[in-house]
Write a structure and sequence with these properties.
It comes from Nocardiopsis sinuspersici. InterPro entries: tRNA_Adeno_NH3ase_assoc_put. This is Putative tRNA adenosine deaminase-associated protein. This protein is of the alpha+beta class. It has one domain. The chain is 33% helix and 22% strand. It has a six-stranded antiparallel β-sheet, sandwiched between helices. The longest helix has 14 residues. The two termini are 19 Å apart. The relative contact order is 0.17.
Length: 162
Amino acid sequence: MSTFAAVFAPNGKAWRGTEVELGDVDVIDDVTDLMLDFAAERGSDLALLLVEADDEWFAVVRAGDDGREPRVYLSDARVVHDHPLASVLSEAGGLGAPPPSESAGARPNPVPDGDGDLLTDLGVTEDELRSLSVGGGVLPGDVLAVVAERAGFGEILDGMRL
């Protein structure tokens, strides 16, 4: 499986980002620690992780909001049974994955789950995020590009994806 993951943190008005490898994470604390360490190095208390896998699904994780647990949004909860990283993220967000009988091949439409509100202050409403998640013909990478553009780090993400 091909997975792209990158963490971003603001430093004043400028965002910084770096691609990260998440293949060996077993628990959400591994992900959160990586995110918060990156944010702290940049003098920020906020970090966003964008994940895209196999042009099939994406996830957004937000950490650093006043010591709260990480906030997670998964574009298709059906993938948690087939992708270990999605499983780790869903456990952290308390997402309700459909049973395996309803997973990836059984229904044609994605089943978004999680905190759709996590990007509202960065320019992407919950309704828009959910609409982009289930919109026909919209690839996960395109959704993440919209998220990055609205938040102010679109060019950084584009540079990583080239």
